[in-house]
Every structure is written in C-alpha cells, then in structure tokens.
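Worked Example 4.2. Consider the chain below.
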Amino acid sequence: MSEQKPKLTGKQSRYLRSLGHSLKPLLQIGKGGITDNFINQVRSTLKTHELIKVKIGKNTATEMAVAIDELTSKVPCQLAQSIGKTLLLYKQREENPQIVLPE
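Applying the procedure from the previous section yields the following structure tokens:
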C-alpha cells in the first residue's frame, strides 16, 4: 500500500516551506491519536490542498516522530517541515497539480 516517493531535495523543501509559511493548520491530532479516520481526513485534505499543516494537540500522547512516520507512510505523503508541534505535509495531486516543485 505504501508507495515511497523520492525524498524532497533541500531546494524543494525550502520552496514548500515558503509556500506553507502563511498557512494555518487545517487538521489537529487529538487525544485519540492517529486513527484510520484521521488518516482518511489527511488524504482527503491533501487531495484538495496539496500542502497542509497538521498540528499535534496538547492533550495527545502522540510523539512528533511517531506522527511523522505514521502519516508519511500511511497517507502516503512527504514531510516538508516539522517545527514545534506542527507538521507541513505535501502530496502532489495526480490531476491538475497546483504546486510545481523546483528540480
């Protein structure tokens, strides 16, 4: 099920971080942790937006490293940045991608 994409280059990560700077978190990992329903929400949101911020809530026991591993493998998507309790996730749309990554 997990289709591994090549890692983002430094230039691509910087570009995505610049795009993501002004974004507000669209999803939050709550005290229930990362459930199948949450994974489906992330997939759906990435289909619409391509680049999203996900916040790890204060009342969750989910660690940052665990959240990164689970989301990038189960969605699948790529991590552009993790800072504090916020992840910036990217997945290029199959049809009509809005974000064109630099080479």
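The radius of gyration is 13 Å. The helical segments are 10-20, 36-49, 64-74. Compare this with Example 4.1 before moving on.
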